[in-house]
Write a structure and sequence with these properties.
Radius of gyration: 24 Å
Oligomer: single chain
Low-confidence stretches: 13-24, 366-380
Strand order of the largest sheet: 1-2
Number of helices: 13
Length: 380
Amino acid sequence: MIPTEDMDNRTEYYNMYGAYFAPLRSGGEKMLGEGLTGEDLEMIPEHWFKYPEPPASAHTALCLLYCFFTAAALIGNGMVIFIFASTKSLRTASNFLILNLAIFDFIMMLKAPIFIYNSAMKGFAAGAMWCQIFAVMGSYSGIGAGMTNACIAYDRHSTITRPLDGRLSKGKVLLMIAFIWIYTTPWSLMPLFKVWGRFVPEGFLTSCTFDYLTTTFDNKLFVGCIFVCSYVFPMSCIIYFYSGIVKQVFAHEAALREQAKKMNVESLRSNQNAAAESAEIRIAKAALTVCFLFVTSWTPYGVMSLIGAFGDQNLLTPGVTMIPAITCKAVACIDPWVYAISHPKYRQELQRRMPWLQINEPDDNTSTTSNTTTNSAAPA
């Protein structure tokens, strides 16, 4: 955080921003942040002032891309929230975690109109207040989605590795969801109230996030702590639990093959057991897919924050810093397809309520055995 006396001096200095930007111009080029005054100008890290404003086409391209992301994520996650919350048969313990992930993804893209407006106006047009709102929603949704993914990984690991007694109860899942929201709150509110860290514009000054560019000890410590608590911890849990799932599946397959070899038969599975195991393997594949998505979407942001706080900040140009912002938004569009829309029971309910979608999912009315298998495989 910047001391009060330094902030006052900085404000007075920035009131003469015309003289400040003049040496940085080349051929009449307009620089990032030029034209801003007061609180809006104070929020922007000095790192961005040395870069020219991006071309209008870059703003337009990002505006259109975010329009697509917003529509896809809000519709996809909105349908997941509506169907799972309003259908009693889908209110299983595991599906509460899927519902919580959809809520976080929905919040992540609910703030996108602020970015779209800034991009349409080609700069920091929404101002400081909306920047804070954008950043705090992003913090809640990003950290919350990561922790929810870790809890889903634990739930899948427990169910698959301990099929008899590993299924989580609704009470335990609700406690996990409460813990996720409580865990996320300090990392979202401390920068908002400038208790530790702060929220600032980044890149093209059209989006906002926590400050990873100020080189004070307190800010570097904040970046290191939030990196460990919101990225390393959930990532470690996800990798550990999903690797356990894969290990369990391979061990089970090897045991079946060995036993079949001893009995001189081709396979020990009946058709019913084969179908059940096929469902579990599909769950594992879906889980691994989400693990891959989490890594590819949030690793760029984590690496960028470490470079900003501890590395060579010259590597972080405005264009480069917009790439991680795009990748973490893209996963909010993909999550509902991986977790929910591929779920047979969800598709059947969607088909019943919205027949015009032409989903054509076969209706499963076989027996209690089928329902039991489906409930076991709910989050797939």
